Amino acid sequence: MAEREIGFGVVGLGMGAGHARDIYDLPGARLVAVCDIDEERLHAVGDRYGARKYRDYDQMLEDPDVEVVSIALPSGMHAEAGIKAARAGKHIVVEKPIDIDLRKIDALIEAADKAGVKLSVVFQSRYHPLFRAIKQVIDSGRLGKLYGIHADLFWWREQSYYEDVKHGKWKGTWAMDGGGSLANQGIHTLDLVQWLGGPVESVMGYMGVFAHQIEAEDKVSAVLRFRNGAIGSINTTTAAWPGDGETLTIHGENGTIATSKSRDVLEIWKLRDDLDGSEEKEMLLRFGPGAAERQGVSSDPMALRLHGHQPIFADMIQAIRENRDPYITGRDGRVPVEIMLAIYESCRTGRAVRLPLG
Ligand SMILES: NC(=O)c1ccc[n+]([C@@H]2O[C@H](COP(=O)([O-])OP(=O)(O)OC[C@H]3O[C@@H](n4cnc5c(N)ncnc54)[C@H](O)[C@@H]3O)[C@@H](O)[C@H]2O)c1
């Protein structure tokens, strides 16, 4: 017997328009409703997928066919919208970062626990089979003692990106974006760094605003000390005209793994126990340069079937059906935000900041 479809509602139809598309295309999911105060976005997305259109979020929460709410509102609104969803008995998928304020995040986690609803956070890279393979190598001990994890995100954003008055001009603000290049673009990278490296003990950072008129930063450099002794570093910027990609390098006692400047493309897979280099060859074939083109859409066969944010929604559906935690929980989503806040505190005070905060 075919399993019942799970009904989704999406709020915030910038990135959320992508959520709507991914849910609409996903077997097992039904896009029931969409919500935005921007009528143009609301009608465009609602009409495209034949979904109910709500201008008022509270009204969408009253819709009994909406079982999961996917939140793609400005980052500083996430926890509040999530708490409302939890109180209405809806499961929650929330865009990164889960929110920008730890107290609000804790209130959201508590509200979801209390209501007995699932809470998941959008960190799509964690589902990517390349990053899962890297995580497996580190966790299995094959890399031996971890020495370092280093990530660079050298992106470019036009000033106009920060001037979107129609949608609240919230990007690059402390109050709604939680910061600039680190809080918005770099949070995925920071999440990967901490997910792979383990608990972070302390951080030290510098930030500046170089190429934009924004309140927060458009460039951060930070050094991280992991509890296991490894040293990490992260550089994030939206001031690297015309944009120069994103890289990740991990090295330990028994090898080095690195991605190239195109996100998710493997460059180095060197492990001492891969004596004949056969694993390196296979990994480069699956994930190295040209792999995506060779395989048509994506460098992984699984992702040929699931695109965009679909793995997150598919996981939420399974979590509901199996009554288990989602692959990335609210508590998981809190971790990179705490590290991000520690980095900003260090940037402001000029001192190393230890975790956990306060
Ligand atoms: N996972 C990713 O790779 C990824 C990529 C881009 C953005 N995001 C995240 O998605 C979120 C949204 O970012 P964006 O770039 O789409 O921003 P955006 O400003 O383009 O879109 C936000 C939308 O929310 C709507 N909105 C605001 N207040 C509302 C309310 N009270 N009720 C209903 N709708 C309301 C706005 O009208 C707007 O359409 C952010 O948290 C961002 O970090 C994630």
CATH topology of the largest domain, which one? Dihydrodipicolinate Reductase, domain 2
Domain count: the total is 2
Which residue ranges are poorly predicted, with pLDDT under 50 across at least 5 consecutive positions? Answer: 297-304
The hetero molecules present are: nicotinamide-adenine-dinucleotide
- Overall average residue pLDDT: 95
What is the topology, as strand order, of the major beta sheet?
13-12-11-7-10-9-8-14
For the termini, the CA-CA separation is 52 Å
Q: Indicate the CATH class of the largest domain.
A: Alpha Beta
Give the helix level as a range of percent.
Answer: 25-40%
The secondary-structure class comes to alpha/beta
The number of helices is 12
In percent, how much strand structure appears in the residues?
Answer: 15-25%
User: What would the principal axes of the Cα set say about the shape?
Assistant: globular
Radius of gyration: 20 Å
**Biggest pleated-sheet summary:** 8 strands, mixed
Q: Give the total of beta strands.
A: 14
Name of the CATH architecture of the largest domain: 2-Layer Sandwich
**The CATH fourth-level homologous superfamily of the largest domain:** Dihydrodipicolinate Reductase, domain 2
